[in-house]
């Protein structure tokens, strides 16, 4: 029995993703001038959205109950420090993830 | 040079430039396949999602949407929120992709990483066949991602040790991009707005419902700040 709900979720995610990717070409493909507020949002949204996604990923942790979100916060701090130090995306991601896996499997 | 030489040159160049993307996509793709398999959705699902959605962060989020039984409207809005940034990649590629033969595929495959390569005029000034370069970079990146997620799904099922926690790679990815943006800009008002608005909405609406209010609040706050000096980091 195929999980039809999962199929629908994938279909919606695929269609909306491609609507987003195609929209600029369809709407502004004929050299009409881009509205200024769109240009502005295009410049500032990427910074804000990354901040939002970080919060989205950490939304499940509880600061009150043990381990008080320590695996996430410490591993996250390692990612930030590694990236400030080396600015190598892959190294930062692998280092932080390895640290997190060690924490939740062996420490906390 | 004859046509065949031009073609093999552009393929080799595209491969060389996409090596960093290959390592990233393989690791994150494998991570995606492993997490998806650990939630009971095997290789068929991993391949279908990577082939049809081809948006890394959205696919990670989609795992939670699928297993959390989230509705289709919320799925559409979440996709919109997570992928809205792609609107602005398209805006800057309209001119360059004009008249290319494989334009629909180029647009379909315009991810963050592909964009970072094809938009870089200075780096590819010496590339003769620009359209060929756009195509091969897009196709290679696409194949890395699909390969990674299929591998992860297959390996995840037989892997002898505990892979719990590998999904932290997503958090790490966003953190890395966030830090990279922070380090390469002077004005951090937009970044701070994103974090602050999200935390406020998380406290008010709870972890299951905060994303859409956060998007609205962020857009509203950013529109209020429009015209502030330096906010766009131009």
What would you say this structure looks like, in words?
The complex is a heterodimer of chains A (108) and B (234). Chain A is mostly helical and 108 residues long. In chain A, 78% of the residues lie in helices and 0% in strands. Chain B has 234 residues and is mostly helical. Chain B has 2 domains: 3-163, no CATH class; 185-234, no CATH class. Chain B is built from 11 helices and no strands. Chain B has helices spanning 3-38, 43-52, 56-67, 72-83, 86-93, 103-108, 112-118, 130-158, 168-183, 189-205, 211-224. At the A-B interface, helix 1, helix 2, helix 3 and helix 4 of A face helix 1, helix 2, helix 3, helix 4 and helix 5 of B.
Helices, strands, pairings?
The complex is a heterodimer of chains A (108) and B (234).
Chain A lengths: L3 H25 L7 H23 L11 H17 L2 H19 L1
Chain B lengths: L2 H36 L4 H10 L3 H12 L4 H12 L2 H8 L9 H6 L3 H7 L11 H29 L9 H16 L5 H17 L5 H14 L10
Helix pairs in contact in B: 1-3, 1-8, 2-8, 3-4, 7-8, 10-11
Strand content of chain B: under 5%
Q: How many discrete domains of chain A?
A: 2
Number of continuous helical runs of chain A:
4
Shape summary of chain A:
extended
What is the strand tally of chain A? 0
- What string gives the helices and strands of chain B in order? HHHHHHHHHHH
Largest sheet of chain B: none
Tell me the total number of β-strands of chain B.
0
How would you describe this structure in keywords?
heterodimer, A: 108 residues, mainly alpha, 2 domains, 4 helices, 0% strand, B: 234 residues
Summarize the structure.
With 108 residues, chain A is an all-alpha fold. Chain A is 78% helix and 0% strand.
């Amino acid at each position: 029995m195929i999980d039809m709900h999962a199929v629908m979720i994938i279909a919606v995610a695929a269609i909306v993703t491609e609507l987003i990717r195609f929209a600029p070409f369809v709407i502004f493909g004929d050299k009409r001038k881009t509205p200024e507020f769109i240009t502005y949002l295009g410049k500032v949204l990427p910074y804000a959205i990354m901040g939002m996604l970080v919060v989205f990923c950490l939304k499940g942790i509880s600061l009150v109950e043990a381990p008080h979100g320590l695996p996430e916060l410490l591993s996250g701090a390692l990612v930030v420090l590694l990236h400030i130090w080396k600015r190598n995306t892959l190294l930062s991601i692998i280092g932080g993830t390895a640290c997190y896996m060690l924490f939740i499997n062996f420490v906390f | 040079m004859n046509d065949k030489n031009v073609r093999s040159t552009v393929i080799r160049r595209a491969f060389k430039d996409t090596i960093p993307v290959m390592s990233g996509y393989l690791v994150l793709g494998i991570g995606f396949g492993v997490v998806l398999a650990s939630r009971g959705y095997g290789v068929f699902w991993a391949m279908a999602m990577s082939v049809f959605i081809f948006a890394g962060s959205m696919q990670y989020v989609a795992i939670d949407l699928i297993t959390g039984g989230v509705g289709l409207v919320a799925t559409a809005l979440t996709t919109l929120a997570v992928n809205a940034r792609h609107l602005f990649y398209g805006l800057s590629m309209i001119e360059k992709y004009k008249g290319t033969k494989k334009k629909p595929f180029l647009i379909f495959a315009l991810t963050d990483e592909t964009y970072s390569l094809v938009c870089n005029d200075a780096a590819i000034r010496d590339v003769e066949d620009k359209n060929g370069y756009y195509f091969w970079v897009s196709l290679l990146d696409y194949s890395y991602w699909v390969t990674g997620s299929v591998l992860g799904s297959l390996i995840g099922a037989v892997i002898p040790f505990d892979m719990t926690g590998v999904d932290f790679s997503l958090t790490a990815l966003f953190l890395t991009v966030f830090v990279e943006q922070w380090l390469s800009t002077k004005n951090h008002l937009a970044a701070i707005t994103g974090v602050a608005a999200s935390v406020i909405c998380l406290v008010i609406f709870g972890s299951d419902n905060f994303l859409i209010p956060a998007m609205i609040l962020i857009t509203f706050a950013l529109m209020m700040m429009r015209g502030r000096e330096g906010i766009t980091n131009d």
